[in-house]
Specification:
Elements: H1 2-14, H2 16-58, E1 65-68, E2 71-74, H3 109-113, H4 128-147, H5 151-173, H6 178-191, H7 200-225, H8 232-245, H9 250-270, H10 283-308
Antiparallel strand pairs: 1-2
Helix pairs in contact: 2-4, 2-5, 4-5, 5-6, 5-10, 6-7, 6-8, 7-8, 8-10, 9-10
EC number: 2.1.1.-, 3.4.23.43
Family: Belongs to the peptidase A24 family.
Membrane topology: Multi-pass membrane protein
Length: about 300
């Protein structure tokens, strides 16, 4: 096995274009699964919350509770009876419930073959699906070109997959699930024990500083206005980038994400696609800024420092 891996790495190093192409195809395929994560994980979370709320709020309600010995049992929860997770049920048209054939699940190509509609009832399929697949493929292909077949490429790709899922969920639900951010945080700290992207000390300080940087802004804004300017998921995502890239990258990530967020927000208000005062997700801007810092962060910092000389 080790000999095969060594041969593969050698071959990919000799033919970088092949490595980029293989990375694109593999990542686009993962992007197809990320579409499932983006859609289903929030539903799974809501069902879990509903189940917990029903259990704790209904357990002692006299109208729906029956006495069984010394135990009080709530009525069964039937709001979501079917088994539902990232694997079950299989992909199907949301309107006619027709199962999607395997070849129609091919990244980008499947959507093009179907001409953007269900093969059975011709209901339109959102262009978002191939966009996520194509974007994931292009991002990882960029990593392959920049890092080559290295350990850094492997972990940077994992980070990218999580960021794509987090961005899609935050855009839909204004939510950055702990199920994604916390494993990323721990993984960043673990891999940097070997200094993959930053030293262990810089990673640990970065995780703490990343969280506290936005946490402090949150409370200052709340004390000044009485309003909450962002969610705790944003704090955790900044902690993730601190753990992965070290504390040195945090100022640039905060500045870049704030700048991009402000520009897009103003543009949306100007085009009347966003009403003033309506919240917008900040996680996607942090994700974009952090991904840029992953590749070009040091070059950007060096360029900025050179302008000060």
């Amino acid at each position: 096995m080790s000999e095969f891996i060594s041969t593969f790495i050698t071959t990919m190093s000799q033919y970088p274009w092949l490595f980029v192409a293989i990375s694109f195809i593999f990542a686009a395929t993962i992007g197809s699964f990320l579409n499932v994560v983006i859609h289903r994980l929030p539903v799974m979370m809501k069902r879990e919350w509903q189940s917990e709320c029903n259990y704790y709020l209904n357990e002692y309600h006299p109208d729906i509770v029956k006495q069984v010995g010394e135990k009080r049992l709530a009525k069964p929860i039937d709001a979501f009876p079917e088994k539902y997770n990232l694997m079950v049920p299989g992909s199907a048209c949301p309107k006619c419930k027709t199962d999607i054939k395997p070849w129609h699940n091919l990244p980008v190509l499947g959507w093009l073959m179907l001409k953007g509609q269900c093969a059975s009832c011709h209901t339109k399929i959102s262009a978002r699906y191939p966009i996520v697949e194509l974007t994931t493929g292009l991002l990882v292909a960029t990593l392959a070109f920049y890092f080559g077949p290295t350990t850094q490429f492997i972990f940077a790709s994992i980070l990218t997959f999580f960021l794509v899922a987090l961005t899609g969920i935050d855009l839909d639900e204004m939510l950055l699930p702990d199920q994604l951010t916390l494993p990323l945080l721990w993984l960043g700290l673990i891999i940097n024990l070997q200094g993959v992207f930053a030293s262990p000390t810089d990673a640990l300080i970065g995780a703490v500083a990343g969280y506290l940087s936005l946490w402090s802004v949150f409370w200052l804004f709340k004390l000044a206005t009485g309003k909450e300017g962002m969610g705790y998921g944003d704090f955790k995502l900044m902690a993730v980038f601190g753990a992965w890239l070290g504390w040195q990258m945090l100022p640039m990530i905060i500045l870049l994400s704030s700048l991009v967020g402000a520009i897009i927000g103003i543009a949306m208000i100007a085009t009347k696609k966003l009403h003033a005062g309506k919240p917008i997700p900040f996680g996607p801007y942090i994700a974009v800024a952090g991904w840029i810092a992953l590749i070009w962060g040091q070059e950007i910092i060096n360029w900025y420092l050179s302008t000060l000389v």
